[in-house]
Amino acid sequence: MTMGSLKMHAGIEENGHGEPGQYIPSSTAFACMINSEIGALLAVVRRNVRWGGRYMSEEDQLEHSLIQSLKSLRKKLFSWNRQWNAVDPSIYLQPFLDVIRSDEIGAPITGVALSSVYKILSLGILDPTTVNVKDAMHLVVDAVTSCRFEVTDSASEEVVLMKILQVLLACMKSKASFLLNNQHVCTIVNTCFRIVHQAGTKGELLQRIARHTMNELVRCIFLHLQHFNHTGKPSTHGNGPPGETEVSVLQKEYTSEDKQLDRSNGSSENASVSVGSLRSLVDDSVVGTGHSEVAVDAVPNPMNELYGVACVLEVFQFLCSLLNVGDQIGMSPRLNWTEFDEDVPLFALGLINSSIELGGSFISQHPKLLILIKEELFPNLMQFGLSMSPLILSMVCNIILNLYLHLRKELKLQLEAFLSSVIQRLAQSKHGDSSYQQQEVLMEALVDLCRQKTFMAELYANFDCDISCCNLFEDVSNLLSKSAFPVNSPLSSMHVLALEGLVAVVEGFSERIGNSPSFSDKSLLVLEQYTPFWNEKCKNYADPDSWVGFVRHRKQIKKTLMMGVDHFNRDPKKGLEFLQRTHLLPTELDPQSVALFFRYTLGLDKNIVGDFLGSHEEFWVQVLQEFARSFNFQDMNLDIALRLFLESFRLPGESQKIQRVLEAFSERFYEQSPQILANKDAALVLSYSIILLNTDQHNVRVKKKMTVEDFVRNNRRINGGDDLPREFLLELYHSICKNEIKMSPEQGAEVVTPSHRVNLMHKSKTAPPFITCDSKPFLDRDMFSVLSGPTLAAICVVFDNAENEDIYQTCIDGCLAMAQIASCSHSVNILDDLVISLCKFTTLLDISQMDDPILAFADDTKAMMATVTVFTIANKYGDYIVLAGRNILDCILSLHRIGLLPSVAASNEQSSDPVSENQ
């Protein structure tokens, strides 16, 4: 019997509503299946002594209502002659769901009922065309997420929990899942999350299944993001606005429902467990909002609308909140911090990575989701990017790669901050700040990015050519070339990784040249007079004819500016004079131009800037005023605004200078945020008070710390004779106590502070758009001039030290790519250096020192590969080889001398000297 006849024999037929290749039961087969499930459930019930007899009622001896409903359904099953999608699913699901809800039922019976519901869901009977399917789906979710059962033994309890996970996942994978509302989807995720944490005290199998189910749920939810329109709803179900949630549903349920019952681990017949009361590893304070008693229905609640972006937002915010768990309960005596430190963040990061993989570029269509990534996720990624765990570090790097591939246009400055941190950490690794494993993970992440064809070009265009950003392209190039050098050590995997990164970069260059052989070589503008260039914007960042010339000009300005910074840090007066001569400052200095120089120039000595800003001279007082006006403090708390202000320079030590600086700050803050403060004097006094509190709380020499009541008392009647709101002062106090205001420039990798976060968000609002590069080599000539020298040196050193043929081939690939780039850009010096270096590896220039040159050459794989590469380059790009022509000729003559070339080839070559021809 064939497979097809087996299917027909079983009563299974193809349904037009199913997926291609999916088969669902016919009407008769489905009725038989439900009948079998009822029989199986009743059989298990009868085995239980308690349920096997009669149920005593006040009127008569009757069977329990749960058994009655099952038998009643059994009578009706075969009387329905219509298609099953015309039958209300609630009718045949309800008896099973009643069993699942009942707290009088034991775990074995509940498990069978759950299996029956799962079987119905997995057959594909429920789809959007089924009658009343929306209510049926709601019933299933409500029943399963509030499942209650008696605990008789731990094994049966684990089986039921696994089946709950199975049914909930089937609900989300059902074709009718779009008919669930946001509340139900959040409840499903919340229930699975509870089981994940309860599984920590159970068997290994339950732990793995629970985590896998949670991951699959997140994947389902974010895979659906592509079907939601910009309003946040499924594109087939209306276009109303998603609105905002008053209370986080996941967090609200998590704190309120956990308090209902305590789960008993005993074997008593009266002990019962509810999925809504699972015990968690995390306290209520971790994921709770503090508003668990707020009525969700008091305001129009989008969580009651059809499943859409409002739910996605809740789930993603919940996942991000898991990354904050360690900060809040790290001191809890109930926790094994060593295990928790890695396990919980790793689990959360894995879920977040899945959500970004599946959501992809569709995330950019939903601004609220982007804000969560910028404000909630990225600070945590920066924090965990400093982790000592290679596992966590690897997952963070995976997320960053996904964010770059899908959302780099929206996350320009966030990516800059992370990459700068990675580069800095790798560069400092020689001082022992990171283990070898950590360094390898970070290097692998960097190389993965370099393998993206436009990555380095986009680094150069967006950061190296932006005055307010660091030179990421140069930093990555230098880091890779230095990391490839095996200085006083044998060749390691780290050296090979760095080499692979460099080769990937130059191969990307060569591919772009192949697609468009002409380089952009427009002449650069010469600065003849000063213009306020700090905030200049390109007319069209999407048009290469517009942005290529603009960014090249900005790079020219940036190079000169960096030289001015170097002069300024050594001698401020000479530095300003240099900038005036190069027209980066006006001939006659004015306060605004100097203030902008202080405000937006990277690398300035913050001590020198602070001294100038605190000066009593009239010109510098005006500079201070202009400097303060360059800040935007709208909608900021005073402590955050003060952090941002003091982070841009070092506060001078003299009291009079401090007074002048804080007066300028207070005037600007009050001008933009007058809501609470009565006048600028109140802002000034409170700023002083915050600085004193900061010193008091974070100076180890201060033994008796200021209490919150001391702080409130010190600030009485400063607001125009009135008191400031106590809640306002408490918020300031706790913010300063928790996060110190850094009064001096920090060295090394920085921990992400609130001021860094706010500064990043503020800069993001005014940052130029992210320039995406295509397959054309718009800036490759400029980049190659920076990259070529270090790359060639690194390739040669690795080639010389390598003993593996695969590594040889990687080096050869890099050489061929560099030769193509050099020839297309007419960089004859680079091509000559490349060929001369390769000729040395052929060993043909030293055959006089070999006892048996033919045998030595034949046994040397490296020499033969180098020889083939030299002649390949000579054949393809010989017109651009000048000085290296003689080296090539020497190699040919050596091959002739040892008998590996016919005499006619040598005579032909001798009659045509490539050196003389090219000269």
UniProtKB/TrEMBL annotation:
GO terms for cellular component: cytosol; endomembrane system; membrane. InterPro entries: Mon2/Sec7/BIG1-like_HUS, Sec7_C_sf, Sec7_dom, Sec7_dom_sf. PANTHER family: GOLGI-SPECIFIC BREFELDIN A-RESISTANCE GUANINE NUCLEOTIDE EXCHANGE FACTOR 1 (PTHR10663:SF388), GUANYL-NUCLEOTIDE EXCHANGE FACTOR (PTHR10663). It is found in: Cytoplasm, Cytosol; Membrane. One of its GO terms (biological process) is regulation of ARF protein signal transduction. Its main location: cytoplasm. Residues 550-739 form the SEC7 domain. SMART domains: Sec7. It holds the Pfam family Sec7. This is SEC7 domain-containing protein. It is a peripheral membrane protein. It comes from the Eukaryota. Keywords: Cytoplasm, Guanine-nucleotide releasing factor, Membrane. GO terms for molecular function: guanyl-nucleotide exchange factor activity.
